[in-house]
């Protein structure tokens, strides 16, 4: 497993990371034993970066990771945690809370659930419109000084917020959706990160399974994709047609659609680390195969022709969620 540097100030991590969200019900039920086995398989394969959020399954995901890593040497993995998203007992989503006092409370619970004495990368999940980002990052910086956090990251914010945050403390990476059908960061966000020496951890590289080549429909009312515009009737058919054009290119390379899509993200720069959301060992094994797939200029040109920028039908979130994305302010690129 090769390593990539997360920005000028961040750690070295494996060239692909494991996003653990889907192990806690966001895409329908998951098998606990298989989830833990998948985390172990990822670590055995050399993956060092495990990504989670304290609100995934209302703490379930952190406890799951904590169980998986309890006997693993601490220098064999890094944990990236998002905080701030509010939920109610029914699992519904509320606002975001990035007040310094709230952050310290969230962090205390995170460390307890993970069974760790520090988080490797800690980041607000979204921009809290009621709290200046300088206040939030300044408070996390205090946790760095205290030893509870090693590096500070950001998630789904635009260039102005990135610059303001970086003026307070070095930022290791921006976590943001990036895939063949979600390329809005290329316009202004990615150039700003590169100017400032901030890495990218890219989630949604398979567009939540849409361009995995294995799409079989949402898994019931608990599945986030039931409400996602890209998976609605009329849109999903158009998007799956794009997948079929990718399947032909993948076949010519002896690869799967998922491997081609992951390799494309990885090929966009050494400062980008794709996060794969595998929750089963067979899907993890397929994703790891992307690391052996070398895309030549002709391959990249063929992919661009098959899935041109802006080709996706539907936004990546519903209007309510899109409205709170600082990374989607007017003028910052496509959905």
From TrEMBL:
A Pfam family recorded for this sequence: Aldo_ket_red
EC category name: oxidoreductase
GO MF annotation, one: pyridoxine 4-dehydrogenase (NADP+) activity
Keywords, in A-Z order: Oxidoreductase
Keyword Oxidoreductase applies: yes
Keyword Oxidoreductase assigned: yes
A GO-annotated cellular component: cytoplasm
EC identifiers of the protein: 1.1.1.65
Ranges for domain NADP-dependent oxidoreductase: 15-306
Identification of the protein by name: Pyridoxine 4-dehydrogenase
